[in-house]
Protein 1
Amino acid sequence: AMAWRAAPRAAARLLLGRRGIASCIDPSTGLTEDQKEFQKVAFDFAAKEMAPYMAEWDEKEIFPVETMRKAAQLGFGGIYVKPDVGGSGLSRLDTSIIFEALSTGCTSTTAYMSIHNMCVWMIDTFGNEEQRRRFCPSLCSMEKFASYCLTEPGSGSDAASLLTSAQRKGDTYVLNGSKAFISGGGDTDVYVVMCRTGGPGPKGISCLVLEKGMPGLSFGKKEKKVGWNSQPTRAVIFEDCVVPVGNRLGAEGQGFSIAMQGLNGGRINIASCSLGAAHASVLLAQEHLTVRKQFGEPLANNQYLQFGLAEMATRLLAARLMVRNAARALQEGRDDAAVLCSMAKLFATDECFGICNQALQMHGGYGYLKDYAVQQFVRDIRVHQILEGTNEVMRMIVARNLLQG
Amino acid sequence: QAIDDDCNQTGQLLAAMLDWPQGTFASRVELEDGAVRVEREVDGGLETLRLRLPAVLTADLRLNEPRYATLPNIMKAKKKPLEVVAAGELGVPASAPRLKVLQVQEPPPRAGGEKVESVESLLGKLRHAGRI
């Protein structure tokens, strides 16, 4: 609010500053006019509605429901969901650009929004007409929020070994088991759950949509995390939880395939969130180097720090190009899309963490204080190297492509 | 203040023609009973006026915050039809522009200042120039 009330030129500089315009890391280069417009809305929203609050949301562990609903009004609740059920019908590249921009305002909240978007897309893509119309509109508007349940205490990277069972009884499934580390768990309304309806391995897995309030659905304690504090994380517990057969997405045994397809987009989205955090951190470092003086001159006069900033910018641009390349491959339905998404997620999340960490170092002691945003970007994106498939699993996927492909 | 010619005249002219009070460069407007409280952006800061209605107000950039464009609207914008209408079809008599530019000049160059030796000398010079 304050930035807008300031003199127009100063306000413009603040907003432009977030975008890094007229520099080598300008994120709008190579985009179409429409994409530049989407990006502008996302950057403006991030600067005005998210950045002033990201520290408070982190400290007080606030799930910013009203802010996310405002974002949903602009179309950010179902970005790549079809318009006939309330989505914005945009491409994967458009989505990446939007999440990257929003992430400069608050990475943790944007990451949750990307998970929500993936859930709505799953229902939109694999649900039948009745399911699409029942669930998607209220999710696109964020009247209701969604969570994605795949990971269990006993199955993380080895997702296909999940144990949550769904026994068919008449026209219902009865679920028993639990899911771990569920983003939004306990506060969200709709749960997209991968469970075992058949035999062992991936082919025995189906996808069910559950709703909060269903008997037998309960939640564990809220986890205390290093970052991602603007979204609650809880275990999701099923105890003889009865779910109508009409809540199954796709066919029995199709669940794992749905999960894998969802992860392609999810990996691009998480990588995009890392890009935004790194972009913001580079700008923060650039500002600090210009302002902070030691030994009688600004830090920016030191060649070591100049080289450091140059390396950060170069790595950021490389990561951004990897992510956008993967997004294009996915939206074009190319055969190499899945492995490109894995490479992009691996590269971008690793590089961007390094960039944010280096930016923190450049801030000296101030970088360690919670009054300065750079430490929150570091803490928030650390987990991007772990979820949506660990970066070790990403390497497995790429190696398999090279040695077996 | 229009951004093409920066004349800063239309609101003021209208108020004079109607003989209504004016609050220009409004950055905050509050309606009261039969009146309006206007906070204006002036060179020195903010000026608050209370004007009897009806009144003429002109808006400053800081009066409101524009809405965000929504993603669907951005996409629809390109598809909106652009209708071209000839001036004659509107029933507006074609006429020469009603504004005539009489003169355009640079502001006078900044004249050099003068240093004085004493306060009395300063007062004398100011009186002589008709400033006090």
Protein 2
Amino acid sequence: MSIYTFGLEPLSCHAWNKDRTQIAISPNSNVVHIYQKSGKEWNKIHELTEHSGRITGVDWAPETNRIVTCASDRNAYVWTLKDGVWKPTLVLVRINRAATCVKWSPMENKFALGSGAKLISVCYFEKENDWWLSKHIKKGICSTVLSLDWHPNNVLLAAGSADLHCRVFSAYIKDIEEKPGPTPWGSKMPFGEVLFEHKECGGWVHSVSFSPSGDTLAWVSHNSSISVADGPRGKQVTHLTTDNLPLMSVIYVTENDIVAAGHDCCPYQFSYIGPEALGFVKKLDVPKQSSKGSMSAMQHFRNLDKKATTEEDHNEMETLHQNSITQLCIVEGPKTNVEKYSSVGLDGAMVVWTFKSCTTTSN
Amino acid sequence: MSKNTVSDRFRKVDVDEYDENKFVDEEDGGENQMGPDEAEVDSLIRQGSLMGALQAVLKNPPINTKNQNVKDRAEGLVLKVLSSFKSADIEKAVQSLDKNSVDLLMKYIYKGFERPSENSSTVLLQWHEKALSAGGVGCIVRVLTARKTV
């Protein structure tokens, strides 16, 4: 794993470009910085300054090379690279509250935007008028939408919200795509239809993630639990409560392995094999045992005098991240076999982790 | 200074009550929840079977009911059982509980902290320490995030 600190400000969100040589991050402000990798260092090459409110979400579409940003100023912009400069295009999302999260669909022809206006705005480009239009999904949502994830079929959208519910909606836009085939979540998918809803997830649903095949859906909520809904098996939901602080972000790294991280500043691995078979595997940040050298008597008494204790200095946390992890992102490997993933946190650091599937033998 | 002669009662109106989009928790039929069985728990305590009393008092928690009396009665009963344990036995008792029971025990402990009585705080703190080592901070987070509690 490698760690890089981008400064002292917390990193609200991050997104990688296609070949992972550039990263877009926002340091808890209204600006997005794009850094280019050179050796072990990252150099800032662009600044996207159009938003007036704090940036809450960034997503970079790998194939079409477009960036979408959303902020608390109720706006979203789609940025395209023209002559080495990123040019913004305003998207008419028509929300009257802050935007909270944004995600490109797998085919990158539309994106979904969650907001505090209790609705999801699904936006697509209309060629005739050369602008981005939006359609709203409101059914059943009673509070802020906190997280979104697309199903691989480009139509279904999972949403976690502050009304303690986790839902799967259809975001089928007939103007730009073909009718989707049936899935384990349902066969009739008109726009805005709720195909799955889980009430009372125990707390705010901070993050949702579909498995690579789209058959299972995992989410983490604020009551320190992780849950998985199994589409093919009657959409049965399995919960697992943890002994740790709440998790903030969750991603699938294989069809059955899940990595989640949050306020404990450390990623955890879980595995889901079937209903009632959701289990904790291990902590993924194993700190190196720092050499506890023997303290001289002088040091001993100095500590006693200064700090009224003879214990060693515990100012730093044992984990790589020194503060909560806010977002996880896949870096390398196909969705079914992720090799590397990244995490950003409130400590301003970005860490790239290597994932070793349990089935591989270590030399 | 001019005196305000018009009524200022409007300042005490709870505007959230009139909000059409107000978030309401789902109502689960909690009318039949009576809390743990007092007679059963009392008899187990008298018999000296404290582990059994603990298991019994953690059954049927009055989570869904709105009846404050039922909740208070349950809390009082739990406190009675917790106080009757010897300090040395607390750890073993907590180890014998499953995850959900530890969460429920922690809910009762924090409820007990809200209204401290003579000896309750000491007893509750001892139980809190053991429950924390069994359930971790996640257990306490669940006490704080639970919308319907004992």
